[in-house]
Amino acid sequence: MDRIKIITIFGTRPEAIKMAPLVKKMRKKPCIESKICVTAQHRQMLDQVLNLFDIEPDFDLNVMKDKQSLTGITSRVLIGLEEIFKSEKPDLVLVHGDTTTTFAGALAAFYQKIRVGHVEAGLRTYDKYFPFPEEMNRKLTGAIADMHFAPTLGSKQNLLREGVNENNIYITGNTVIDAMEFTVDNNYTFNNKELNNIKFDRRKVIMVTAHRRENWGDGIKNICKALKSIIEENKDTELVYLVHLNPVVRDTVYSILGNVDRVHLLEPLDTKETHNLMNKCYMIMTDSGGLQEEAPHLGKPVLVLRNVTERPEAVKAGTVKLVGTDFNKIVECANELIRDKDEYQKMSRAINPYGDGKASSRIVKAILQYFNIEHGEFKEFN
């Protein structure tokens, strides 16, 4: 085989950020016919990333609907991909991570007996409802995949325990670190005027995202009450909360933090704005998975607003700390980082276990070796 056709599928902003550098790397290989299919599971936030990285999809399922359900997303993606796969007949389908698009994409490829490559494979919490539905999306995708691109040794070990053939697992590092090479600028000026008015050099600015399904209800309420307490107790701090578009989240956030001094409630930012906010802020509090990987690359401590994480490497390395949604624990751990310089330095200087900016190159190399187009030693990320 001299040339292969690869269809890369993604549907949300986090997937797009992490797949963009891989898409760009594949474009440079004449032996790869690379095509892009977006499901638009999240339309607006996905389009921001496509524009940033200058990616024009070949196929756009545009499945997003108001108040969409997981069942609805899954069924629309399956139906939409069936015709594409039948007409295109790719040699490999690439999916990323743990979204509903990921699982549905892998399943649709399986139904057509097309090989599947799973980028960011092997992350586990071993609790099928935390995070929900991501944990099972990832495990089910892993059961289908032919090639597993694990970001770390720990992820590989998870796959081995589940019986995956070691020859089909490749430790690559995480492609999100590759993406940040395109987005972070130390001299960056924000498009958002409110951010440009914040004195990052004079205040300890805390960046916050919190929106996961398992935190809806009491979880988000506790988080917001804790954030209010932290800001009121520490006069040298300022808070930037990027509030998810979901009304379940927004109603709670605005009711508790809407009129609090030194709190900025902003719409979700595009990728470049977000990465540069991370770069300028003091610390990060989040229930996101991706930020746990991105922030350590920039030397920013992370308090994870979840009880479990599928990224234990960061906890072990000391770059992140699990605090859950307990009011007292959130306040205690945040105050420690704000007030204890030694504790802050310990977390901010820990080594990022997730990548060196070469993950995309490793994935392309592994694919070309798998299809016997290239040969030679595959050097894993250590």
Automatic annotation (TrEMBL):
Concerning CDD domains, the annotation shows: GTB_UDP-GlcNAc_2-Epimerase
Q: Which GO terms describe its molecular function?
A: UDP-N-acetylglucosamine 2-epimerase activity
EC number(s) stated in the UniProt entry for this protein: 5.1.3.14
State the SUPFAM superfamilies in the record.
Answer: UDP-Glycosyltransferase/glycogen phosphorylase
Task: Provide the protein name.
Answer: UDP-N-acetylglucosamine 2-epimerase (non-hydrolyzing)
Gene3D superfamilies in the cross-refs: Glycogen Phosphorylase B (3.40.50.2000)
Q: Which UniProt keywords apply?
A: Isomerase
What PANTHER family does this protein's entry cite?
UDP-N-ACETYLGLUCOSAMINE 2-EPIMERASE
Out of the domains of life, which is the source?
Bacteria
Q: Which InterPro entries match?
A: UDP_GlcNAc_Epimerase_2_dom, WecB-like
A Pfam cross-reference name? Epimerase_2
Q: What family does this belong to?
A: Belongs to the UDP-N-acetylglucosamine 2-epimerase family.
Q: What class of enzyme is it?
A: isomerase
Residue span, UDP-N-acetylglucosamine 2-epimerase domain: 24-367
